[in-house]
Amino acid sequence: MQDAQFESLVDCFEKVFPNLSRSDISNASHENVAGWDSIAQVTLLSLVGEAFGIEIDFEEFEEATSFAAVLEFVRARIANARP
Fold first, then answer.
1. Which of 3, 4, 28, 49 has its CB surrounded by the most CB atoms within 10 Å?
2. How many angstroms separate the Cα of 5 from the Cα of each of 20, 28, 72, 73, 74?
């Protein structure tokens, strides 16, 4: 079973990429998802920021071009935000 952050991120990806199955989302990247363009990236950035209550600058999110990279980014941001 995955943790809450993983599941919340899957929900964000489902909204941006509705044609992906839940099982395909964890392997999703800009290289293997046809609809992953700059508009999808900005939409994903917005949803992730909202879902996790974090502010994200587009430039720092630019390198997050796979589910794994976005999850790593989110976890690092949340860990660094804790007092």
1. 28
2. 19, 16, 10, 11, 8
**Number of residues in the chain:** 83
Cα first-last separation, the chain: 28
CA distance 24 to 52: 22
Residue 42 CA to residue 11 CA, distance in Å, equals: 16
Q: What is the pLDDT of residues 14-47, one digit of tens each?
A: 999 999 999 999 999 999 999 999 999 999 999 9
Task: Domains for the chain: give ranges and CATH numbers.
Answer: 4-81 (1.10.1200.10)
Residue 11 CB-half CA count within 13 A: 13
d(CA 20, CA 23): 8
Helices 67-81 and 4-16, axial angle in degrees (round to 10): 130
